[in-house]
Each structure stands twice: as structure tokens, then as C-alpha cells.
Amino acid sequence: MREMSTRFGAKPGGYLWAFLDPVSHIVFLSVIFMAIAHMPPLGTSFPLFFATGYIGFQFYQAMAGYLNSAVSGNKALLSYPSVAPIDTVAARYALQLVTTSIVAIVVLGYIVFTVRHPVSIHLPPILEAIAAASLIALGIGLANTVLFIMYPIYEKLYGIITRPLFLVSGVFFLPDSLPPIAKDVILFNPLAHILMQFRTGFYPQYRAAGYDGFYVWCVAASLMFVGLVLFTSCRARLRDR
């Protein structure tokens, strides 16, 4: 409840901003690409194609960005013995997952019901993609919570290194449609696999050539392990900072 009131209650419009961000990006991408292409890479609807890319990406991006400051943004609460550092991460994880899920249902639901051709939705790949994206973000968030506090320069480097992720994760293109060399490079990014899997839930005809679920879950498990080890070993230091 504190996270909800802090993040959305203090801003004019509140939760409206959670919807305006993806809608504005989807509209912008749709208008730009409709001006330079006759058809999207999948299907016939530009808004649906970009919505599946952008919202799928947000299950990672919004989560990771929100978790990075979970402890530093709740230092006052840690003065209470009953509140542990992991509680701040758990609260933000739950809030962001619910928020992004609601936004996805509303935005994608509206687009699906307004497109010309009926859309066949298959939930298992969508839910698997959401789970993988949010767990990768959680693992990175747990690690960054510690590393940002211990090494301030790392926070700046992290922002620089991860900034191009939006461009190389397949938000506005299909990785499997690229030339072999470019495709192999892009598919080192687990988020590209996640967006491919997310889109298969909306496009039954999409085969997602190159998708490797085993690779995605290995990355997610590895990041969760590293994040939990770092966070657990430094939990006393996190409370004292």
C-alpha cells in the first residue's frame, strides 16, 4: 500500500500514467512504421505488433528499473525490526507485476477487440514469457540493489550498457527475419527470445525460428541465483546503509 501511494498517489493522474506510457509508445511506433511500410512483420495490425513487443518488453524493463532502488527508496521502513530488506523487493515485485499485467490486459484487450481480423490468443506461451521476463528482472534487481549501494559508479555504467536493450530485443522487428550473422548476435539477448515467445501467443502462424526456451530459463535461474546470493550475503549491510 505504501508503494502504491508513493508511486502513483503522489502524481496527478495517478495510475493513468501507467497506461499512457505504453499507449504513447505504441501509437508513435505505429504511425512511424505505417508511413514507411505497407504491412507489419506479423499479421495486419501495426498496433497489435508493436503492443506485443513493447508490453512484453515492459515485463522486464519496468520491473528491473523499479526493483533497483527498492531498498534505497525505503530506508525509513528498515528502522523497524519487523521489516527486512527483502520485504521491500517483494512489495515492489508484486506491485509492478500486477500493474504491468493490468496494463497488458487493458491495452492488448482493446487492440484485439478492435482489429479487423479475429485474433486467436494462446495463453501458455504468454504466461511463460511473462514469468521468464519478470524473474530475469528480479534476479538483476536483487543484484543491483546491492551493487548500486556498494559501487555507485556501477549504477552509471549499468544505465549506459542497458540503454540499447530496447533496440536489440525485437520490440519493432522479428529477430528470426534478420540475416544469419545479425540473428545469431541478437539471440544472445534472452529478451529477444522472450518477445518471440510472447508473440506466439497472439500469432498462431508465427513459428519463432531460433527461440530457445532452455537458454532463457538457464539465464533466469543463473541471474536469480547470483542475485539471491549477493542480496542474502549483504542483507545486514543493506539495513545499515
Quick structural overview:
The chain is 70% helix and 0% strand.
The total domain count is 1
Poorly predicted regions are: none
In terms of DSSP E residues, the strand content is: under 5%
- Main sheet: strands, sense, barrel: none
**Topology order in helix (H) and strand (E) letters:** HHHHHHHHHHH
Arithmetic mean pLDDT: 89
Count of discrete alpha- or pi-helical segments spanning 4 or more residues = 11
Report what the structure shows:
The protein is mainly alpha-helical and 241 residues long. It has one domain (2-240). 70% of the residues lie in helices and 0% in strands. Helix 2 (16-36) packs across helix 3, helix 3 (46-67) runs antiparallel to helix 4 (85-114) and helix 5 (123-150) packs parallel to helix 10 (213-233). The longest helix has 30 residues, at 85-114.
Could you name the key traits of this structure?
about 240 residues; mainly alpha; about 70% helix; about 0% strand
